[in-house]
Amino acid sequence: MRILLLGKGAREDALAWSLSGSPLTDRIYAAPGNPGIARFADIVELDIYDAAEVTDFAVAEKIDLVVIGPEDILVAGIPDHLRTKGISVFGPGSKGARLEGSKSFAKDFMKRYGVPAADYVVCSDMECARKAIAGRKPPYIVKADGLAAGKGSFVLNTENEALQISIKLLEEGFLGDAGRKIVIEDCLEGSEMTVLALTDGNVIKPLSPSQDHKRAYDNDEGPNTGGMGAYSPVPWSDPSLMEKIYHKVLFPTLEGIKAENIDFCGILYAGLMINSNREPFVIEYNVRFGDPEAQVVLPVLEGDLAEMMLACTQKRLEDVSVPPPQKWAAGVVLASGGYPGKYIKGVEVEGLDTEKHAEDTLIFHAGTLQDSNRKIITSGGRVLTVVGISGNSLEEAVKKAYSRIDNIHFKDMHYRKDIAGKARTF
Q1: What is the CATH number of the domain that holds 69?
Q2: Which of 138, 160, 185 is the last residue of a domain?
Q3: Which of 124, 276, 352, 404 has the most crowded Cβ, counting Cβ within 10 A?
Q4: How far is Cα 1 from Cα 314, in angstroms, rounded to an integer?
Q5: How many CB atoms sit inside 10 A of residue 408's CB?
């Protein structure tokens, strides 16, 4: 296959790495890509939000499969345009992408199809928001309805804080159109877990479960980020829990997708809270691989990702097996100083060429560029994800990741020292 991969983060680097290992893969093109993705793909200049430009390239280069990383491309409907030209796409069209693109649509969808989730109220004005907040107890959960690059969900300790965030979103345009409507919901308690599942719209098959670390600093302190690390699989996620997640979350979600005539091919991401009774509740849906979840789920994937994706586009996922993981992976995000707030760019990254532990660690690029001297420099808040892999234990995978990090340096680099620290505390 000739594959076109759209995106530029560590998730897409992980996808490029995984796809490049398939005997089905002949050539990978990537746009806009990054220096890490360039190890596995030919980087091409494309406006990935211009449906006609992407489609013209795919037709001219006889692309067999388009793989889409970021959610905003899906919400924008680029897959719909590609499919009108007969091009296979791994990723839902705009109709399916509403499960991520609109929190209110997703909550209403869950309610319609009996998917367990927190009680909620959708508000477009402060009168509604005040009533919704007054009827709840702390911590208060306020979410922007639209896409906000991981920055639209707020956990607030006081009623006044919840009111102030609601005012900033609804009246001050803090997140633009994404926050013109908000969801106020009850707080779920328990342990968070993510399940990424492949679906062709007819069947759904979960991949290895993972756990993300959203807060910027150790011990889950500091502001929310796009994710500071993850690990997979989750030790306390036994077969009985996965069975429960399938029957209570994944299957009814797929039934809802069918009932609403949504042609869904790609990844369904279920962000879950598992309560003390080991019951799953959905925090949110995404409609693509998570970041940093992809960086740990793909290295433990048994089987051929390209084959699985192709099977999804051909509506024959039922015929492809997704074996359980036989390894452990732990990924640590190296971030620019100040992230998720203000940070500087253009800082040289050193130590990427050292070979220590190269056979059992992976480095996925996120916010990097190559300068005129062919040096790797920072270009974003999350710069790299360093992944340790072990066939023996999660603890060994964690140790390998941090050992590899000891050789990497850039000015004001910061990262969490406690990734996977909660793996056995459920």
Answers
A1: 3.40.50.20
A2: 185
A3: 404
A4: 14
A5: 18
| CB 283 within 8 Å of CB 170 | no
**Given pLDDT bands bounded at 50, 70 and 90, which one contains residue 357?**
very low
Q: Are both 166 and 127 inside the same structural domain?
A: yes
As given in the structure block, the two tokens for residue 3 are 């594959």
How many angstroms separate the CA atoms of 114 and 229, rounded? 31
Residue 358 lies in a domain: no
Q: How far apart are the first and last CA of the chain?
A: 43
Q: Which of 185, 218, 236 is the last residue of a domain?
A: 185
Q: What is the largest CA-CA distance in the chain?
A: 60
Is 80 exceeded by the pLDDT of residue 320? yes
Per-residue pLDDT, averaged over 195-224, amounts to 96
- 84 with 42, same domain? yes
CB-CB contact of 395 with 326 (8 Å): no
Question: Is residue 68 in some structural domain?
Answer: yes
Which tens digits make up the pLDDT trace of 130-163?
999 999 999 999 999 999 877 899 999 999 999 9
pLDDT per position as a tens digit, 86-106: 999 999 999 999 999 999 999
Could you tell me if residue 137 is inside a domain? yes
- Total number of residues shown for the chain: 426
Residue at 403 is within a domain: no
pLDDT in tens, 299-311: 999 999 999 999 9
DSSP-assigned states of every residue in 187-211: PP-SEEEEEEEEE-SS-EEE---BE
What is the separation of C-alpha 239 from the centre of its chain, rounded to a whole number of angstroms?
A: 23
> The tokens of 369 are what?
């560029």
Is the confidence at residue 425, as pLDDT, over 70?
A: no
**Taking a C-beta distance cutoff of 8 angstroms, is the pair 350, 410 a contact?**
yes
Place of tokens 């928001």: 129
Q: How far apart are CA 407 and CA 425, in angstroms?
A: 30
**Residue 92, CB half-sphere, CA atoms under 13 Å: how many?**
28
Same domain, 81 and 135: no
Same domain? 84 vs 136: no
What phi-psi label fits residue 77: left (phi over 0), alpha (psi between -120 and 50 degrees) or beta?
A: left
Number of compact structural domains in the chain: 2
Q: Are residues 7 and 81 in the same domain?
A: yes
Q: Which domain holds residue 167?
A: 120-185
Q: Which residues contact 239 (CB under 8 A, 6 or more apart)?
A: none
Paired residues of 7 in beta bridges: 32
Element (H, E) at 174: none
